[in-house]
Design a protein that fits this description.
Keywords: ATP-binding, Kinase, Nucleotide-binding, Transferase. The protein is α+β, with helices and mostly antiparallel strands. The chain folds into two domains: 65 residues, Transferase Creatine Kinase, Chain A, domain 1 (Orthogonal Bundle), CATH 1.10.135; 243 residues, Glutamine synthetase/guanido kinase, catalytic domain (Creatine Kinase, Chain A, domain 2, 2-Layer Sandwich), CATH 3.30.590. The protein is 35% helix and 16% strand. The chain has an eight-stranded antiparallel β-sheet. Strands 6-7 form a two-stranded antiparallel sheet. Strand 4 and strand 5 form a beta hairpin. The radius of gyration is 20 Å and the shape is globular. Bound molecules: adenosine-5'-diphosphate and D-arginine. The site of D-arginine has 10 residues, from loops.
Length: 346
């Protein structure tokens, strides 16, 4: 049975968990447990232990999104502006806008990733070590069928030396091996067992296995050709979907451990030089949020910007299609580039 004491949060905590977990909802959800044995205490453990969480929750299985909906749905609405129904996938490229010249000139690299999990298994916070190994085996089998253009090799984290691992992380290709938010959520259990990365020969296409989600399918290239990177991502996703049955929900789309990644489960990002706007990062984040964008540092979440370079990405993943999210990002990037040119020191 989970801890029945209503969690206390310090004044400094600003998570959506703190904002939406009322005593009434806490009482209503007490005693509920999913078929994997996941409880409300499991769902919120990360946000209780890591008070600087922005969200503070990770689901343990598909059932969590129904059983704990009284808490999760208000959080989804707050974060995405939607709690479903999620539209059918749309990866079409023909109506994407053009990036302005001033935007293109300031984009160092582009990355588009989607999270996916396998149907028939719990999500990372509730999966067993045996199930996690089965997931890794199934994904490796599917990777063997990728088209030759994106073929490469799978690298198990257990068999990877530190130097190689640190190099891949430093080059933004591999996930970090320490994350206190994921640890509190139970996502780092048995680490590094059954974790790894598939890398295509040119390193432009990769697949993370059993980190925060069972798959993170990633396309990444230098420069600002967002359409080309989106096309590469689409090729990889459709190839893998021919060999894997992904976990989906009729209302929420693709299911992921973190509620911020539902729906498309897609984050499209550019590393963009914004030297004008970098003089006031707080204002940049407010302006970006107003454009439906999210600002991260150059090493992703919870990292700092460097040399006026920021990770700019779409914030909304649920309630929009993939093509709409990319369009939104590209329009937002053009707007930020104009604002940056006006703010640039004379
Ligand atoms: P995720 O995007 O997978 O949710 P993070 O924000 O932690 O997770 O980013 C993962 C890694 O991808 C980090 O090393 C980050 O620097 C890198 N990354 C994200 N976007 C880009 C980009 N446009 N160009 C280069 N690296 C990127
Ligand atoms: N750090 C957690 C997760 C927020 C969203 N990012 C993810 N899922 N990687 C938080 O609640 O802040």
């Amino acid at each position: 049975m989970g801890n029945s004491k209503f969690p206390s949060f310090t004044d400094g905590c600003a998570s959506l968990l703190k904002k939406h977990l009322t005593k009434e909802i806490w009482e209503e959800l007490q005693g509920r447990r999913t078929a994997s044995g996941f409880t409300i205490s499991d769902l919120i453990r990360s946000g209780v232990e890591q008070e600087d969480s922005s969200i503070g929750m990770y689901a343990g299985d598909a059932e969590s999104y129904d059983l704990f909906a009284p808490l999760l749905d208000p959080v989804l609405l707050d974060y995405h502006g939607s709690s479903g129904p999620h539209p059918a996938p749309d990866f079409s490229l023909d109506a994407l806008p053009e990036l302005s010249r001033e935007a293109q000139e300031n984009i160092l690299s582009t990355r588009v990733r989607v999270g996916r999990n396998l149907a028939g298994y719990p999500l990372g916070p509730a999966i067993s070590s045996a199930e996690r190994r089965e997931v890794e085996t199934r994904i490796k089998e599917a990777l063997a069928h990728l088209p030759d253009a994106i073929q490469g090799a799978y690298h198990s984290l257990s068999e990877m030396n530190q130097t190689r691992r640190q190099d891949l992380v430093a080059r933004h290709l591999l996930f970090k091996s320490e994350d206190r938010f994921l640890t509190s959520a139970g996502l780092m259990r048995d680490w590094p067992d059954a974790r790894g990365i598939f890398l295509s020969r040119d390193e432009a296409f990769s697949v993370w296995v059993n980190e925060e989600d069972q798959l993170r399918i990633i396309a990444m290239k230098k420069g600002g050709d967002v359409t080309a990177v989106f096309r590469l991502l689409t090729e990889g996703v459709s190839a893998l979907s021919r060999h894997l049955d992904f976990l989906t929900d009729p209302r929420l789309g693709f299911l992921t451990s973190c509620p911020t990644n539902l729906g498309t489960a897609m984050r499209a990002s550019v590393h963009m030089r914004l030297t004008g706007l970098a003089t006031d990062e707080a204002a940049l984040k407010v302006n970006a949020e107003a454009l439906g964008l999210q600002v991260r540092g150059i090493h992703g979440e919870h990292s700092q910007s460097k040399g006026g370079v920021f990770d700019i990405s779409n914030r909304m993943r649920l309630g929009v299609t993939e093509a709409e999210a990319i369009t939104h990002l590209m329009r937002g990037i053009n707007h930020l580039a104009r604002m940056d040119a006006e703010a640039a020191p004379l």
